[in-house]
Amino acid sequence: MDQNSIKKHETDRSRLWISVAMLVFFTLLTFANSWHDALVFDDKMFVGPGSEQRLDSLSEAFTRDVWNSGSGLYRPLLLIDIELQSRWLGESLPGYHLANILLHLLTTLTLFGFLRYLLRTFQSPDETSDFYALLAALTFAVHPAHTEVINSVFNKSSMYVSLAAITGLWWLLSNLKTRPARGWIGLGLIYSIAVLFKESALILPGIAVAMIVLVTEGPLKARVRRCLPVFWLLIPIALYFWIRTTALATVGGEEASETNALISLLEQTRIASETQSLAGIATFGRGLAILAWPYPLRLYYPEPGNLAYIAYISAQFALGGWAVYLLAKGRPMLIFSLVFYYLALLPSIRLITIDSATLHLSERYLYFPSVGLAIALAFGLRALAVRAGRRTLVIVMLPLLLVLATISWDRNAQWKSEVLLFETEYQLSKGSDDALRILVAAHHKYGRHERVAEICDENRLEFRKSYQFAFACLSSYLHQERLDDGLAALQEQAMHGRGWLPARLSLASLYQLRKQYQQVVEQYADIIERTVEPALKDFYKGEMLLAVYPDDREQLELARRLFQQALAQDPDLDSARMRIERIDRKLTNIDALYAPADSN
User: Fold this and answer.
1) Tens of pLDDT, residues 150-203
2) What integer pLDDT is reported at residue 463 of this predicted model?
3) Which of 132, 280, 447, 480: CA 20 to 30 A from 288?
4) Nearest residue to 347 via CA among 192, 155, 200
5) What b/e readout covers 485-515, taking b as 16+ CB neighbours within 10 angstroms?
6) Residue 27 pLDDT
7) How confident is the prediction for the chain on average, in pLDDT?
8) Which of 236, 152, 245, 154 shows the shortest CA–CA distance to 194?
9) Listed residue (361, 409, 329, 299) closest to 42, CA to CA
10) Contact (Cβ atoms closer than 8 angstroms) between residue 95 and residue 34
């Protein structure tokens, strides 16, 4: 190697280490305030002092679903990862968040290496490739749409899948020409691990095929032939579904065969209708819009209005047309990036779903798909630099990166407090059911009944939509001695909501406390009229007599006979048995009260 080659090699190494140092510095700086002492949402169930999903042994992770409740989510390696951290970190909550930050950093550095390899292989082998790869990786590193995944311990699975996808594709591509068998075997091993972290990894073979067909050189037939070994990945797919089906074959405590469990899974699978498919396309467009401009960020993204719906679909057709045009010009990276994005997001938005899950979009779904768009960004930045110059590119990109990092910093601060996070969601959502539910629950936890009452006053029409919200409002109104407002909340739910039965029963109890027995009778009369089962009809008739005539022996005996009838019709109705015991005690006390005095 001559002196110039040695000098060039040393310069390349220096640039590489400078790029790595910059990525480490800016990633850690952007998420320095994510290293907090707080847990939100699902994290509370898996880590920290209130965790309920701990493993008795690491092997247990392979024999249950995530929630150990028949949810169907099978992520054994995620459970093992969380369990190992729990054993090491205990109740040191900042440690869990630090682990997430470091995992994001590792994913970012791996992405930078992959982008650098792609640029040098398919665009330009000179040192400028590092510059464009660095800018694209920095954008990925500080992007606000990644804040939920980084701040949530449970959602780290998206980072593991992304890391596996980048590593697997890089390994395959670097070995495809000279040692294809080695490349496919390596991808298969990585793939087998990734699917045990999260189900969205199942689409990795599709991305690999798209990469080979769209990106590599040669006639189309030759590129298709290069893809044929993808069929060997059917082995890890089959193995995954066998393990999953075996693990989830126990439902409700009863053993079911693997075959029956698989048949049940297939029976529950639903493919979106034509209308839902259009909504799904719009959801893809909304995801692109969030990644293009991630402000303001939401926990829940409602379905777009008509104009936005049309705009999202139209923009995708325009972008797709541009990608096809560039492909015809010999520039395939945009269309490959879009295929990557769509495939990566497909499992999350429920176009093909289990049972009644609905189409929806959340910020956490976008981490993995954004890896694909980072590829388009790297090649797009190079094309822009050719036209406008690298200095112009720096002038444009530096303020943009600063803005993205600032948004991420602010969003991290909201994740420090679930109340602040939910208040932000409430202000943005204009009173959606989900936002109201989580916000009042958070304030209730800290005893902030005055704030809950304010929220209830602002959303009185929501009483009839959500019985959880109505009952939360009732509780806070009672704490503030606003009984009439509490009654109004329950009446709305009783007349119009799905929770009419608990609402009616609660109304009856409140009217009983106020000794308004006519209203108690009205509530039970409505319950009895709407109840179909004879045993329950008798039960509620007895409840009504017990509530209205608590000290009348004749009425209590009648109520006792009604409870006995209910129990005869339904021997498992333990509440009827308890009422009988309660009445017997009352009758004993009444007899003792009116027993003749001892003459002595």
Assistant:
1) 999 999 999 999 999 999 999 999 999 999 999 999 999 999 999 999 999 999
2) 80
3) 132
4) 200
5) bbbbbbbbbbeebebbbebbbbbbebbbeee
6) 97
7) 87
8) 236
9) 299
10) no
Structure token digits, residue 205: 């073979």
Three-state secondary structure call for residue 56: coil
What is the model's pTM? Answer: 0.84
Residue indicated by tokens 């709305």: 492
Residues 6+ apart with CB under 8 A from 213: 220, 223, 224, 227
**Three-state DSSP class for residue 251:** strand
Residue position matching structure tokens 């176009």: 351
Minimum mean pLDDT range among 116-120, 247-251, 565-569? 247-251
Q: Do the beta carbons of residue 214 and residue 332 sit within 8 Å?
A: yes
What would the DSSP string read from start to end of 184-231? Answer: HHHHHHHHHHHTTT-GGGGGHHHHHHHHHHHHS-S-HHHHHHHHGGGG
Reading the block at residue 405, the tokens are 């990092």
- Positive/negative CA dihedral, 414, 420, 421, 423: negative
Supply angle C-alpha 161, 165, 168, rounded to 5: 135
H helical segments located in 90-156: 93-122, 128-142, 147-151
Q: Does 284 have pLDDT greater than 50?
A: yes
Query: What 3-state DSSP class applies to 301?
Result: strand
Supply the DSSP symbol for 53: -
User: Helix axis angle, 3-30 relative to 128-142, nearest 10°?
Assistant: 10
Q: How far apart are CA 470 and CA 474, in angstroms?
A: 6
DSSP alpha helices (H): ranges in 216-305? 220-227, 234-247, 258-268, 274-292
Torsion sign over Cα 209, 315, 410, 426: negative
Tokens representing 174?
């670097």
> How many CB atoms neighbour CB 18 within 10 A?
12
Q: For tokens 């993204």, what's the residue?
A: 301
